[in-house]
């Protein structure tokens, strides 16, 4: 009985420590790198800062709820397509904000000698991402 209780306490401490580490990394990602402020600046939506903050907090809380609950999504395909589109836009905008902050694409284009074709490089990356996502969802998930 004492061994079982001790094991559960150790599991709780490890889980809490892991959650703190992931949460600290997430907050550092958002604040230190300045992804969200740069995204707001690029999209010219300075008047919606409180909406951005609210969406980040609510999205995090909803994600935590879905992670720890046993919710199943049995909705019409149209609703799932809309939901998936919002997820894709979020991940795409976050990745775009991160690459903008870190100047990844200008550095890559200079290193591989495509500094004059930066727009073509960006379009190739976008269409490659779309094709890869469609292939994964239609071939692997659609079965």
Describe the structure.
- By secondary structure, this protein is an all-alpha fold.
- The protein is 82% helix and 0% strand.
- The radius of gyration is 20 Å and the shape is extended.
Provide the descriptors you would attach to this structure in a database record.
mainly alpha, extended, 143 residues
Instruction: Give the overall shape.
Output: extended
Mean pLDDT across residues: 80
Distance between the termini: 46 Å
What percentage of amino acids are in beta strands?
under 5%
Kindly provide the radius of gyration, computed on alpha-carbon positions and rounded to a whole number of angstroms: 20 Å
Helicity level = over 70%
Main β-sheet description: none
* Secondary structure: number of strands: 0
Instruction: Give the SSE string.
Output: HHHHHH
Low-confidence stretches: none
């Amino acid at each position: 009985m004492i061994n079982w209780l001790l094991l559960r306490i150790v599991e709780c401490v490890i889980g809490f420590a892991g959650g703190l580490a992931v949460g600290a990394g997430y907050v550092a990602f958002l604040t230190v790198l300045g992804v969200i402020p740069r995204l707001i600046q690029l999209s010219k939506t300075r008047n919606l800062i409180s909406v951005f903050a609210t969406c980040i907090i609510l999205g995090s809380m909803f994600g935590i709820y879905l992670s720890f609950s046993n919710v199943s999504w049995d909705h019409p395909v149209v609703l799932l397509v809309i939901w998936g589109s919002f997820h894709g836009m979020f991940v795409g905008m976050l990745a775009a904000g991160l690459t903008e902050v870190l100047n990844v694409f200008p550095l890559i284009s200079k290193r591989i000698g495509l500094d004059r074709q930066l727009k073509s490089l960006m379009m190739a990356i976008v269409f490659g991402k779309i094709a890869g996502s469609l292939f994964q969802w239609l071939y692997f998930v659609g079965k």
